[in-house]
Design a protein that fits this description.
Elements lengths: L1 H11 L2 H13 L5 H22 L2 E3 L14 E3 L6 H16 L2 H19 L1 H10 L4 H14 L6 H16 L4 H14 L10 H13 L14 H27 L22 H25 L5 E3 L6 E3 L21 H4 L1 H20 L5 H13 L2 H20 L1 H15 L7 H12 L6 H18 L4 H14 L10 H11 L5 H29 L19
Length: about 550
């Protein structure tokens, strides 16, 4: 069957598919990802020496006195090709590795995921949910779940993406297509959601500071993009599903399991759920309810009152141990709180409790040794990722130290400002500019902290409200997350993918995700213009699209 498909495919490959083939071919000319990041780290050191010697600098758009702003108000290229740079590298090489944000999250989460996987819970749960389901419906569900998972921070990257690969394999579909669909939802749809997430108050705070450069009384709240985010959730779900079904999956073709890590392939994923597995899943559901109740106890308002219907019985929140303990202790805010800041702990608890419960009932786990072996096996599978992270962490740290990313962002923003475009079409240029900048500054908050003081005042002065500006920025930032190695979890996705295809290179991953980026940018940008200027709809509760500068008539 595979030979026959290879004979047919060349006749069906259209211009776009051939373009993606070219991207993949060029990308795979690059060395192994570990080697690539090592070269990039060395290259940044050399470039920093050149630009430092040239005295490259730009005016810092952030207000004087803000954190990180130099006394002279300039952002200068910092050379690592001198004594200070060499000392900084030697003193921080280990810290760069151990403090790389995704590393700790992945290791901790995988301890719990390992228990759930080794017990057989993940296999049974996946089979009970997806076997026999329409394949297109499964694709839609995965993309949608990826978008919604952003509320729970890293859970999409650590759990959903590899799980999507297992689901597609269970359905006898290409596992990389499943991972691509999940990756598109989690990271490409980063700014689409049904709920306000942890990133919303952070971006709103940066936007407010930038807006106050023009209007000191202006306030921006965390829900200022909520309406547009909710609508975008369904748009991105549709686009991501269609791209997966009609572009990515056909291009990948039939899956060749001979190129996979044999430990990742589980033929039992194609078998029906047995009676003992159904019993174990039932008790796992009970354990899950217990975890959810415990989570609720730590997040509910302390002064809330719990009443039992049709009775006079009630309990005041403060009398229940743990009630609201993980809310922000100073503001009692739920979003900006230890609950979400430490969400990886919930991932650990969730999978350990449910996995062990399943294992005990199913007979796959009899004691602590089985649990420890499961944890050990899970971490052992991350060998390539840990090596990759070491070099990626150095590259990211060196890039930040040199200020080259910030300089590029300011230069790009200045270019947009000099175009002189003032109509709604300025947002198209703005979105694409943010998308390009995101290729070098992978952090949404870091990029916005540097560019917001330029873009927000600039667009406010020509009549646009900060809320609309922020919504447009998030489109550009999200759309290219899935094709830039600067995104913190890119290395993790690459490591997951190589378990299904040991020869997979950076070019294959980028070519696989590029269609999502292209269609997200085109349709999401068009949807934004139609939403704000076509239908004149607000991007959030109380948010305006237009802004009248102080003193304007």
């Amino acid at each position: 069957m595979a030979d026959n498909q290879q004979a047919v495919n060349p006749e069906k490959r259209n211009a776009f598919t051939r373009f993606l083939d070219g991207v993949e071919w060029l990308g795979n000319l690059l060395p192994h990802p570990v080697t690539l990041f090592a070269y990039l780290a060395i290259g940044i050191v050399l470039l920093s020496g050149l630009f430092g010697w040239m005295g490259m600098a730009v005016v810092d758009p952030r207000p004087a006195g803000a954190p990180g702003v130099a006394e002279d108000g300039m952002i200068r290229a910092v050379s690592l090709m001198n004594g200070d740079g060499l000392r900084r590298i030697f003193e921080n090489l280990v810290d760069n590795f151990t403090s790389f944000a995704p590393l700790g999250v992945v290791l901790v989460a995988m301890i719990g995921v390992g228990v759930a996987e080794k017990s057989g819970m993940l296999s049974a749960a996946v089979r009970s949910m997806v076997l026999g389901a329409p394949k297109h419906l499964v694709t839609v569900a995965i993309v949608f779940a990826g978008i919604v998972s952003n509320t729970a921070s890293e859970v999409g990257y650590v759990v959903l993406i590899p799980l999507a690969g297992a689901i597609f394999y269970a359905l006898d579909r290409h596992p990389l297509a499943g991972m691509a669909a999940a990756f598109a939802g989690v990271s490409g749809g980063y700014s689409a959601n049904l709920l306000v997430g942890t990133i919303d108050p952070l971006l709103a705070g940066i936007t407010e500071e930038a807006a106050q450069l023009i209007d000191p009384t202006y306030q921006v709240v965390a829900t200022d993009n909520w309406f547009f985010m909710v609508a975008s959730t369904f748009l991105i779900t549709i686009i991501g599903s269609l791209v997966t079904i009609f572009i990515v999956e056909p291009k990948l073709g039939e899956y060749d399991s001979s190129r996979a890590d044999k430990t990742i392939l589980d033929k039992s994923m194609m078998e029906d759920v047995t009676p003992i597995e159904k019993k174990a899943l039932f008790w796992t559901g009970i354990a899950l309810l217990g975890v959810i109740l415990f989570m609720a106890l730590t997040l509910m308002p302390r002064h809330a009152q719990l009443s039992i219907p049709w009775t006079s019985f009630s309990i005041v929140g403060e009398s229940i141990p743990g009630w609201g303990v993980l809310r922000n202790p100073e503001t009692q805010d739920a979003m900006d709180s230890p609950f979400f800041d430490g969400f990886v702990v919930w991932i650990l608890i969730f999978f350990m409790v449910t996995g062990y419960t399943y294992g005990r009932v199913a007979g796959t786990m009899k004691g602590d040794r089985d649990v420890i072996d499961a944890m050990s096996d899970a971490l052992a599978s991350l060998g390539l990722y840990i090596v990759l992270v070491f070099f990626a962490a150095q590259f990211v740290a060196f890039f930040g130290w040199t200020n080259l990313g910030a300089i590029s962002a300011v230069a790009g923003a200045t270019f947009l400002q000099e175009t002189g475009i003032t109509g709604p079409e300025v947002f198209i240029f703005f979105i694409f500019m943010c998308a390009v900048i995101n290729l070098s500054l992978g952090s949404a908050s870091a990029q916005w902290a540097v560019t917001a003081p330029i873009f927000v005042p600039m667009l406010m002065l020509i009549g646009y409200a900060p809320e609309a500006i922020q919504a447009a920025y998030r489109i550009g930032d999200s759309s290219t997350n899935i094709i830039t190695p600067m995104m913190s979890y890119f290395g993790l996705i690459l490591a997951w993918a190589t378990r299904y295809d040991k020869d997979l290179g950076v070019g294959t991953l980028i070519a696989m995700m590029l269609p999502y980026t292209i269609f997200f940018l085109l349709f999401w940008s068009g949807f934004f213009v139609l939403w704000t200027f076509g239908f004149d709809l607000p991007v959030g509760p109380g948010a305006e699209t237009y802004y009248t500068p102080p003193g304007a008539g």
